[in-house]
Design a protein that fits this description.
single chain; mainly alpha; 74% helix
């Protein structure tokens, strides 16, 4: 059942669907794809296995639906913070707020585990991995590119190539923390205070390169 169709379900059926997705998230993020069974998900959701199949068809379809929903939700949350600042004096603050929020979302343990799981399943779900990339890093960079382009148009920051600048700023902030957490586990993810300091330094280095006056 597609997510659009789910919107037409009666409340009791929609509640079961949400319970199944919550159970699937818990099961898949705790183990490899192959080790999770539909029986296990049904038990965790407190529904029959037939109910799981009725809503999602197959284990593959349930996995795709879960990953798509989680990734889109994270992308929506990040994109919501990309507003143009009120004045030139607020550019640094706006960039720090946007990138800080993005880093905090990506460092969420459930999203780190999701990313590891999707990477491990690329041979099985190559199209899904592409969709996750498009909804995640590519979407974040596109939003940043649009913001930097607008700042350049207003003369607040000198960014002759917003696409390149957005890639640079995005990975200046995201690169080291994400790589460390992906390879070494959730425990090495920076604390909120460490994230704030990291973002402040990264944005400062970026602005110094593109406009030393800010």
């Amino acid at each position: 059942m597609k997510s659009q169709e789910a919107a037409t379900l009666r409340p009791s059926s929609l509640a079961k669907r949400h319970a199944i997705l919550a159970a699937a998230e818990q099961a898949f993020l705790a183990a490899r794809y192959d080790s999770v069974t539909m029986d296990e998900i049904a038990d965790m959701a407190q529904v029959s296995k037939q109910t799981v199949y009725t809503h999602f068809g197959t284990k593959d379809q349930l996995f795709v639906e879960l990953v798509t929903a989680m990734t889109k939700g994270a992308g929506d949350e990040v994109s919501a913070g990309s507003a143009v600042p009120a004045s030139r004096e607020h550019v640094r603050e706006a960039l720090e707020e946007l990138l800080g929020h993005q880093l905090a979302v990506v460092m969420t343990p459930r999203l780190l585990r999701l990313r590891r799981l999707v990477i491990s399943e690329v041979p099985r779900f190559p199209d899904l991995a592409r969709a996750v990339y498009d909804q995640g890093p590519r979407r974040a960079v596109a939003a940043l590119e649009a913001l930097l382009g607008e700042l350049d148009a207003r003369g607040w920051v000198q960014v002759p190539n917003p696409a390149v600048a957005a890639e640079q700023l995005n990975w200046l902030v995201m690169g080291a923390p994400t790589n460390a957490a992906m390879y070494l586990g959730d425990d090495v993810a920076p604390s909120p205070a460490e994230q704030e300091l990291h973002v402040r330094r990264a944005v400062g280095a970026f602005l110094a390169a593109y406009d030393g006056a800010l």
